[in-house]
Amino acid sequence: MKCVIFRCSKKDEMYLYVPHREVEAELLNDLPKGLEKLTGRLEKVMELDLFPDRKLARAKTTDVLASLSEKGFYIQMPPNDVILKDDSMLNNPSDSF
Beta strands of the chain (E only): which ranges? Predict the structure, then answer.
C-alpha cells in the first residue's frame, strides 16, 4: 500500500500517515473532524510504499497498514523522551513568559 506521511506541527516527531490518492488535494478529505486539533498544521514529508515485511523506525508496519485500512489514517506518536521533555518544560516553575 502506498501512503503519504505528514509532519504534525503540534508536537515534535509526531507524524500522520494517510493512504495515497492520485489527487493530492483529496489526501486529507476523509480524516475525522477535530483531528487537526491533535495534529496542528500538516506538512507533507514523503510518500512510502508499505508492505508487511518493510521495517519502519518507530512503528510496526502491520499496525500502520491495519490502521490505514480500518481508520483511513495512522498517527505515529513521538518517542517517550520527547513527550517527557515537553511535559517537564510545561511544569517548570522557573520558566516565565
Answer: 2-8, 15-19, 42-49, 74-76
- Give domain status of residue 67, yes or no: yes
DSSP conformational letter for 49: E
Q: Look at the chain and report how many structural domains it folds into.
A: 1
- Determine, yes or no, domain membership for 96: no
CATH of the domain at 60: 3.10.510.20
pLDDT digits (tens, 9 = 90+) for 4-25: 999 999 999 999 999 999 998 9
> For residue 31, what are the CA distances in angstroms to 36, 37, 86, 96?
9, 12, 26, 36
Instruction: Output the average pLDDT for the chain.
Output: 86
- For residue 83, the tally of other CB atoms under 10 A from its CB is 15
Q: What number of residues does the chain have?
A: 97
Inside any domain, residue 57: yes
* Residues of the chain scoring pLDDT < 50: 82-83, 89, 95-97
Residue 73: give the domain boundaries: 2-90
